Automatic annotation (TrEMBL):
Assembly behavior: Part of BBSome complex, that contains BBS1, BBS2, BBS4, BBS5, BBS7, BBS8/TTC8, BBS9 and BBIP10. Interacts with the C-terminus of RAB3IP. Interacts with CCDC28B and ALDOB. Interacts with PKD1.
Organism of provenance: Takifugu bimaculatus
Lineage of the species this protein comes from: Eukaryota, Metazoa, Chordata, Craniata, Vertebrata
A Gene Ontology term for the protein's cellular component: ciliary membrane
Record's protein name: BBSome complex member BBS1
Pfam families according to UniProt: BBS1, GAE_BBS1
Record bears the keyword Membrane: yes
Amino acid sequence: MELSSDAGKWLDAHYDPVAGLYTFSSCMDLADLNGDGENRLLVGDLGSGSLGMKLKVYRGTALSSESALLDLPTGLVSFFMDLHEPRVPAVAVASGPCVYIYKNLRPYFKFTLPGLDVNSLEQDVWQQAREGQIDPLSLKEMLESIRNKADVPLSVRSLSFLSLEPSEMDEFVQLHKQQPVKRQTVITCIQTLKKSTSDDDGVSCLVIGTESCHVYILDPEAFIILSKMVLPSAPTMMNVTGQYDVEFRVTVACRNGSIYVLRRESEKPKYCIELSSHPVGLVRVGKNLVVGGTDESLHGFTQKGKKLWKISLPAPITTMATMDLPTRGFQAVLVGLANCEVHLYHDKNLLSTIRTPDAVTSICFGRYGREDGTLIMATKGGGLLVKILKRTAAFEDKDSTPGPPLTQSVRLNTHKKTKLYVDQMMRERESGTVMHRAFQMDLSRLRLATAKAYLKALESSLTPMSSSLSEPLKMNAVVQGLGPSFKLTLNIQNTAACRPVMNLAISILYDETLYKMRTSYMRIPLLVPGLVYPIETFVECTSDRGISDIIKVFVLHEGKSSPLLTAHINMPISEGLMLG
């Protein structure tokens, strides 16, 4: 395959070989800091490694501002922490055990990771040193013994003490022995997670990976820990997708050479991807993961860990980033190599090769200034390189690997109903016996439930006797007389062993065009167990059409509408009116 030339698709916007920019892809981001529609470049500069760490902001080709950092930055992200106007993002810089939040490029908040448990033996040893019971050499021997046997690691103070020369130990002990022993972890990676909406300016949570094998999700306003998850090894890279309030996935590459997938409401990994070499890059393209390894290879996986493809690279990987063009619906992977090249891949296909004057250590792609397709790279020697994708640039998805053609692996675009039919057919073929047994069982249960309901309906409508499930009551109705006046007697009995029932009432529902009653609501006295209480009333038939209807009787608690007992009484036809 003929490689696409650099000049064919990219414009050289800027190159400063002496910019003095030493950083990684995790410490670069693009954000509209002033809300004017013009994105700035945010860089967490490592400086010399021990001095000169700074937060730098570039506008165009010039450095617009910089702020000093107290420790080496391990990650930098921009995010919206509230819904206040104007919509201006905040900047979070992970450095040591803290996350420094900047708003309007001014320090706003500092979040510190919670402390870890300290080894009790280590505390006892330092307590003895504080009281002068042991000398520095004995302290060193005891700490080395604890380090070799204890499950809980030593604190930074003890590890620093063990690395000193014997002549420096006494001064170190005198300086630190009065201070309490603390064990603090550090942040290894940081990302953002949308809170409830997937909008570009939606509020986001911070997701933090720590050296103590934990992943924390922080609230964007109060900066409290919303969720805590545990990993088998320390995380080094992280990719987050979804919303915290709905569903999310946190894909983490760990130091043990494996990749783990964390889900919502799960404190431990859901899936695990074991690699043949340690990962040096992790990006997400669509629903798939692209992982770069130390063995000069690039791997494609599904989000559940199924391997899709693998390609070999001409040189070791130095950095990786996602190239996302929403206006064109195009996503690809940018891979920086140690041979001063940047390769652009879509799946396993090489689309373009960019040659650089020096090896690239960090890549950031997105909207810079007012240009959507801007590629920003920092080189190993501290240079800054900016390229802009031409609007006429087109990438051809050609397969550069030997073997069957690319079209052979493309799935046919089948109709949804056809796909559903095929899936159901395969399911019935594989588990037909189990489905038939389940169907017969459900059918038998349905028949039994229907028979019970039918029997209950017959008993409640044909005989004016009913019983309650919630209260130990039984009622029998008796109608006396030839008409047009009838005497209705309701015999109520408390069937409990020793508990009386009180505060009951009777409500009678009838057709007022056919019948008339002296009273349709009556209070029931206290019901003693075992006795039958007759409640009498009179019903007068007012119709001369020679028809009858059902009178419904409800027994319920006073002040409540839910009936405890229900009886349907078939009234006889009034013979007095028929004779008249």
